[in-house]
Amino acid sequence: ITNPEDTGIFNPRIEEFVQVVHDAGSLCAYDQANANGILGITRAKEASFDLCHFNLHKTFSTPHGCGGPAAGASGVTSKLAPFLPVPTVKFDGGKYSLDYERPDSIGKIGPFYGVAPNVLRAYAWIMSLGADGLREVAEVAVLNNNYLMKKVLEIRGASAPYATGKRRIEQVRYSWEQLAEETGVHSEEIGLRVADFGTHYWTSHHPYVVPEPMTLEPTESYSKADLDEYAAILKHIADEAYTNPELVKTAPHNSTVHKTEHEI
């Protein structure tokens, strides 16, 4: 389970969901891909998860996983600890060592150390901010996201399905369904046109639950000017879709490779 999930909505009843699964004799894993907006505010521990994946994915100063190298750490309860991959790190009070003597381990995975520079940078970032700083990060991320949402929803053809009119946490999964129906331009084509302006764009995981999706996750890192520029780029492309759709459908125009043929 991811909470907040990918529409940017936080489920306040998450502990009840976990309890239902536990009552059925199963385990619950928490994907913290969207922790950026809840740092210092809520914790997986309080929801009684058995495993939590703290991935460096738009959180802890690391780029979005689709736009940069991602890594992370998995935390588990004592019941699952014997099955962790080898080696684990031990500390005897004086020095650290690697422990390979774990008979119930699932074995070694590689590379178990992740993307070392990202992990080190994230650690330094966390320690320099401290608890109060991490909470401020979350608050700014939520502020940035809701500011950007207001700008995007002013663009013709864009919408934010589910919880209409409600604020979101750290991201929004928008829909270009109206624009696609009216112009024949699809979200993936908008993403390729965005590349002409030198910035990043993501649609969604497959299968698409939100039609013609666009997922924006601004985080705490961007200034108001950055967000205004990105919204202006999207508005410009939406206007192109209505006035010159072929320009968008044949994008990108400023890349060495303009278009690749692919079938799914």
From TrEMBL:
GO cellular component: cytosol; glycine cleavage complex
BP GO terms, sorted: glycine decarboxylation via glycine cleavage system
GO molecular function ontology, one term from the record: glycine binding
Glycine dehydrogenase C-terminal domain segment(s): 138-243
Pfam families for this protein: GcvP2_C
Reaction catalysed by this enzyme: N(6)-[(R)-lipoyl]-L-lysyl-[glycine-cleavage complex H protein] + glycine + H(+) = N(6)-[(R)-S(8)-aminomethyldihydrolipoyl]-L-lysyl-[glycine-cleavage complex H protein] + CO2
Keywords for this protein: Oxidoreductase, Pyridoxal phosphate
InterPro entries: GDC-P_C, GDC_P, PyrdxlP-dep_Trfase, PyrdxlP-dep_Trfase_major, PyrdxlP-dep_Trfase_small
EC number: 1.4.4.2
Top-tier EC class: oxidoreductase
PANTHER family: GLYCINE DEHYDROGENASE (DECARBOXYLATING), MITOCHONDRIAL, GLYCINE DEHYDROGENASE, DECARBOXYLATING
Descriptive protein name: glycine dehydrogenase (aminomethyl-transferring)
Organism: marine sediment metagenome
